[in-house]
Structure to design on (682 residues):
């Protein structure tokens, strides 16, 4: 009963996981698995060929579009969930002895294998190493700046898009395509227009590269930001807007006085999601970053590729530490929005 | 004579081929409550939106306080029309307290004046205890008071209420309605209430406007509309009506139940509209058999049958006939009307 009902959601979940895997660069690169994404990055960074990079990128883009379609289709199946959308309180059930141990063990395995083991190992490595502190701190500042600016820009664009797409629903779907697009593909796609801008404004390379990087983050993470903001804005009914209009506010002023404050929490959520994603983004950053501009993720990746794992520890731990408050805040919020808690 | 607060002259609005509002004329006066009554989908809400300036008219004009607000190709925006809007869902702003909701439309006033005005409205609508409360903590009736107080804050010439009582609980509805209407009358604003409930409309209205298929078919006092409908269509909008074929001769319609006046009607075939309460016990009346009795609380619906007629009668009293019994009934001509075929 539960499984068939969840099937569309399961399909959507699998599609999302495959999308993330397709887009992943760091892990496959480190483990020397040849994938399309590593192909894209290598074609560009080793051979300097945008043409062959684009050749790798195209099938990836097609796969991403297919996955996105599957994920959207899965979502359409959620109508029966929306049909009785009232939250029901979940019953808290006390499991008997053996089952309780098994359940706890399962949860523990997830935490140990997913967080404690890798983080502990990193920490051990980091303790052995003597990090190049000025470089690590500079990279940290870069990561933090990119994360914050990326989050602000993406949330601002997503909010405008969410407000605007109440009239043009197709636009939101188009803008969401970026989420399925691997960062490497996005970056390669941006190189051609970047070349044109560069040729007009020589010497502005650094600024343009940073702007392109932010652009790539915003395009890639638009869907992730758009979804919570869209959901937040659904709390504003058309009648609220009409009421605001009749109370002397024009369209813009109604949006500022009613829609944005109501969606404030959702905008914060969206910002944190983008921030966390930017902090650990690798392929787009590798391709688009200005010369000698390191982020924590880039640094960790470079050390790892040079087999200097103990040096890779500190930047990696810093990524986790800087993202942790945001992650905790988000998970708390998600837990609070669930019934039965 | 005093300028009407609102005058809508022959306004029309179509969506493609569907004429949502066709040639509707409506006048509202200060201090009077007008009910716009009609079945779902008859164009009431569209008419309300046209008056509010949320839609533009294809034809006709809308004047508020003698100023043209809508004409073909011209629509003064909702914020500049001097109207107040109250919705079925009340549309309170969830991020503002009760007092801030009420003061939302008073942005242009200096803070001290705004506070004074809010305090006056809070007192008028008995919301003192709730001024700092959040909208989601209020009951339906309380939310409605806030919505009305908010809509009245800018002292609009016309207050439009869309099905304001339909979301209230049954047992509270009558009491809430009565006190809200008393407060509304005190303000001296011209009020238009949209409803699909004929009994409610007749109970609250000073004037009625009956709407069917986009047209306003009759306006007048509740008594006039109920007892002297201009057409069979109009009579059906206000409650159950039995239509019997009759013959008119010399200004009198001859029915099986007796003669009813049909002043000004030409001789020949016609139709008589009979309200269920028009039938009364009468020793000299037509002999009919009771075939069914339905208990409706304050009244009972007694279905009567003769050789060629089956007719429901709404009767009150404790000693009512039983199924199978024969009774004699005649018509109260005040509850009937005759129309040409």
């Amino acid at each position: 009963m539960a499984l068939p009902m969840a099937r569309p959601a399961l399909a959507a979940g699998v599609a999302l996981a495959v999308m993330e895997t397709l887009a992943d660069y760091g892990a496959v690169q480190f483990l020397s698995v040849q994938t399309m994404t590593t192909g894209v990055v290598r074609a560009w960074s080793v051979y300097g060929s945008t043409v062959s990079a684009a050749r790798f990128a195209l099938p990836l883009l097609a796969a991403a579009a297919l996955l996105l379609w599957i994920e959207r289709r899965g979502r359409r199946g959620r109508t029966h969930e929306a049909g009785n959308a009232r939250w029901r309180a979940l019953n808290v059930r006390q499991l008997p002895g053996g089952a309780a141990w098994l359940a706890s063990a399962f949860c523990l395995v997830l935490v140990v294998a997913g967080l404690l083991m890798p983080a502990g190992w990193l920490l051990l490595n980091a303790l052995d190493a003597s990090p190049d502190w000025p470089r690590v701190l500079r990279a940290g500042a870069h990561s933090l700046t990119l994360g914050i600016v990326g989050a602000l820009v993406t949330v601002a664009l997503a909010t405008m898009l969410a407000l605007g797409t109440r009239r043009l629903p197709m636009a939101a779907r188009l803008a969401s395509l970026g989420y399925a697009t691997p960062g490497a593909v996005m970056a390669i796609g941006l190189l051609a227009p970047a070349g044109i801008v560069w040729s007009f404004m020589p010497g502005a390379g650094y600024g343009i590269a940073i702007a392109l990087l932010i652009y790539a983050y915003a395009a890639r993470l638009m869907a992730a930001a758009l979804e919570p903001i869209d959901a937040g804005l659904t709390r504003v009914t058309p009648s609220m807007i009409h009421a605001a209009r009749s109370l002397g506010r024009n369209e813009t002023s109604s949006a500022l006085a009613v829609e944005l404050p109501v969606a404030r929490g959702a905008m914060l959520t969206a910002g944190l999601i983008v921030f966390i994603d930017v902090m650990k983004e690798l392929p787009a950053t590798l391709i688009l970053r200005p010369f000698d501009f390191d982020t924590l993720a880039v640094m960790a990746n470079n050390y790892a590729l040079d087999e200097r794992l103990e040096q890779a520890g500190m930047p990696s731990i810093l990524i986790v530490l800087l993202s942790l408050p945001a992650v905790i805040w988000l998970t708390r919020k998600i837990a609070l929005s669930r019934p039965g808690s | 004579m005093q300028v009407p607060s609102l005058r809508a002259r022959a306004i029309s609005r179509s969506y493609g081929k569907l004429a949502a509002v066709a040639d509707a004329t409506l006048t509202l006066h200060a201090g009077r409550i007008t009910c716009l009554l009609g079945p779902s989908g008859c164009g009431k809400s569209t008419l309300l939106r046209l008056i509010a300036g949320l839609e533009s008219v294809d034809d006709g004009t809308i004047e508020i306080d003698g100023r043209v607000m809508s004409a073909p190709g011209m629509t003064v925006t909702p914020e500049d029309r001097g109207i107040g809007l109250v919705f079925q869902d009340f549309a309170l702003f969830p991020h503002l307290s009760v007092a801030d909701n009420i003061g939302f439309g008073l942005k242009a006033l200096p803070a001290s004046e705004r506070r004074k005005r809010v305090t006056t409205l809070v007192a008028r609508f008995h919301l003192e205890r709730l001024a700092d409360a959040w909208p989601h903590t209020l009951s339906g009736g309380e939310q409605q008071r806030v919505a009305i107080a908010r809509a009245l804050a800018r002292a609009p010439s016309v207050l439009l209420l869309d099905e304001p009582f339909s979301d209230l609980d049954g047992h509270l509805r009558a009491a809430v309605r009565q006190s809200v209407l008393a407060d509304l009358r005190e303000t001296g604003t011209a009020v238009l209430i949209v409803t699909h409930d004929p009994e409610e409309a007749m109970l609250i209205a000073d004037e009625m406007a009956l709407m069917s298929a986009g047209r306003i078919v009759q306006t007048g006092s509740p008594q006039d509309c109920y007892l002297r409908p201009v057409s069979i269509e109009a009579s059906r909008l206000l409650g159950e009506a039995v239509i019997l074929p009759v013959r008119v001769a010399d200004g009198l319609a001859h029915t099986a139940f007796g003669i009813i006046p049909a002043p000004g009607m030409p001789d020949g075939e016609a139709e008589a509209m009979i309200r269920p309460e028009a039938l009364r016990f009468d020793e000299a009346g037509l002999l009919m058999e009771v075939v069914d009795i339905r208990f409706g609380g304050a009244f009972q619906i007694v279905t009567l049958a003769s050789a060629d007629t089956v007719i429901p009668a709404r009767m009150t009293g404790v000693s009512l006939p039983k199924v199978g019994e024969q009774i004699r009934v005649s018509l109260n001509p005040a509850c009937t009307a005759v129309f040409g075929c």
About this structure: The radius of gyration of chain B is 24 Å.
